[in-house]
Design goal:
With 126 residues, this protein is of the alpha+beta class. The protein is built from five helices and four strands, in the order H-H-E-H-H-H-E-E-E.
Length: 126
């Protein structure tokens, strides 16, 4: 997939969050500046676990509240947010996150892969 051309054309921006030294306000500020500068209508956060790990340790304690504030600030600009989260599935439950964050989304798409012979080939959407 070609990401270089849309970046050169100003239609795609990729933010690199410096691990372990960001405050939520810095992240929101950078994200809002980029959304306004590019006129973005869609924003992807890949992934929520990575976002949490990029925050300075003092900001991780109130991650849920911080995420709520960030999503609120971004959606007020009219941007649609797609966020990903990796999950560990057990036979008894499916937890999307160690936090109760499902209230932050309008819809949840669950995508699974399973091993077929020697490679991961099939996708299941639910």
């Amino acid at each position: 997939m070609d990401f270089v051309t849309p970046q050169k054309d100003g239609k795609l921006a990729v933010l690199y969050l410096r691990p372990l030294d960001l405050s939520v306000d810095e992240t929101v500020g950078e994200s809002l500046d980029t959304v306004r500068r590019t006129g973005a209508k869609r924003l992807a956060i890949d992934s929520l676990a990575g976002f949490e790990m990029a925050l300075a340790p003092t900001f991780r304690t109130d991650f849920r509240e911080s995420l709520y504030r960030m999503i609120g600030a971004l959606t007020r600009t009219g941007v649609t947010i797609l966020s990903t989260v990796e999950v560990v599935e057990t036979f008894t439950e499916l937890a999307l996150s160690p936090y109760s964050i499902s209230f932050l989304s309008d819809d949840i798409i669950r995508c699974d892969t399973w091993k077929s012979t020697a490679s991961f080939e099939k996708w299941s959407w639910s």
